[in-house]
């Protein structure tokens, strides 16, 4: 009757089924009672109106019964919830980063992955970190979900029971591409996981670049990608020293995305709009980003096209 892909799924399913069953019984019962009353006491029966006084027995009855049901709901809910906060000592810890609009999993030593790859039957703890706004990590098959909030240390854990691929999504509205903030958890055998992790290329050094830190601090990742993906604004990949067709007013011109252009794009973002993008979506950062920080950004952008 109960199923799921993690050790926590059964407890969650039991609480859900119990609450759903009670709710179903009540909605059917109340609906039938309402239909009976409408038929039994319809106007055509010409029943004489009667005056009723209070009933202590009835008051006690409809107080005690809901109280008992709510206590049972609490019990099943607690039984399902309590294990979620008891992490085994041998759990594998993976730093899980949420940013607009992607998930990234840090296995340590600079090894990063966009897909959560984990061994089967191994307790996994995900340490949740947000680099911009509120997110919420949800793995339906594992029955786990936790908020990912900037500046707040949060986590979740589970033990995957079966190999396979399972959907991961964000369930906290986090901007224009919230719907696309999805990835997957891939559960594999221990030997396959160890081989995958050993061959995973360490790419975690570049994110420590101070220029990227400036971009993240000011929320630039919300609209500009690092991998060529088209978001609200142009991608940063291969941007530096590239030729860009921009609209100045209604006139088109081709410019070089050099140091001066980067500075203008940050301080006067609506003067030159890259063709294919909308005007007015970005405000000036003149009071937020210093010239020294712009230089750090430029140095980082150079790393995105091999310079």
How would you portray this structure in words?
The protein is of the alpha+beta class. The protein folds into 3 domains: 9-44 and 53-85, no CATH class; 92-199, Cupredoxins -  blue copper proteins (Immunoglobulin-like); 206-303, Cytochrome Bc1 Complex, Chain D, domain 2, CATH 1.10.760.10. 32% of the residues lie in helices and 22% in strands. It contains 6 helices and 13 strands. The strands form 3 sheets. Strands 3-2-1-5-8 form a 5-stranded mixed sheet, with no helix packed on it. The radius of gyration is 28 Å and the shape is extended. The model has no long low-confidence stretch (mean pLDDT 88).
Summarize the structure.
With 307 residues, the protein is an alpha+beta fold. It has six helices and 13 strands. The longest helix is centred in the N-terminal third of the chain and has 32 residues.
């Amino acid at each position: 009757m109960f199923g799921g892909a993690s050790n926590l799924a059964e407890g969650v399913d039991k609480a859900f089924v119990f609450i759903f069953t009670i709710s179903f019984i009540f909605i059917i019962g109340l609906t039938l009672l309402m239909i009976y009353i409408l038929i039994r006491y319809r106007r055509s029966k010409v029943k004489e109106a009667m005056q009723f006084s209070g009933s202590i027995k009835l008051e006690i009855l409809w107080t005690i019964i809901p109280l008992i049901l709510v206590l049972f709901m609490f019990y099943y809910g607690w039984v399902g919830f309590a294990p979620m906060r008891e992490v085994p000592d041998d759990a594998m810890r993976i730093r899980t980063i949420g940013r607009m609009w992607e998930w990234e999993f840090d296995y340590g030593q600079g090894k990063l992955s966009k897909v959560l790859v984990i061994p089967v039957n191994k307790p996994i703890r995900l340490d949740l970190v947000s680099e911009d706004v509120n997110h919420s990590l949800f793995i339906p098959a594992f029955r786990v979900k936790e908020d990912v909030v900037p500046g707040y240390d949060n986590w979740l854990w589970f033990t995957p029971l079966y190999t396979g691929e399972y959907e991961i999504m964000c369930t906290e509205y986090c901007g224009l591409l919230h719907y696309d903030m999805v990835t997957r958890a891939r559960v594999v055998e221990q030997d396959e996981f160890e081989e995958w992790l050993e061959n995973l290329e360490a790419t975690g050094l570049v994110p420590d670049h101070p220029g990227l830190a400036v971009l993240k601090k000011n929320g630039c990742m919300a609209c500009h990608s690092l991998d060529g993906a088209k978001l609200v604004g142009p991608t940063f990949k291969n941007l530096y020293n590239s030729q860009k067709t921009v609209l100045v007013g209604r006139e088109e011109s081709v410019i070089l995305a050099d140091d001066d252009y980067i500075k203008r794009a940050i301080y006067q973002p609506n003067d030159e709009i890259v063709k294919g993008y909308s005007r007015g979506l970005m405000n000036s950062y003149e009071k937020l980003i210093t010239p020294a920080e712009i230089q750090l950004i430029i140095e980082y952008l150079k790393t995105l096209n091999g310079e």
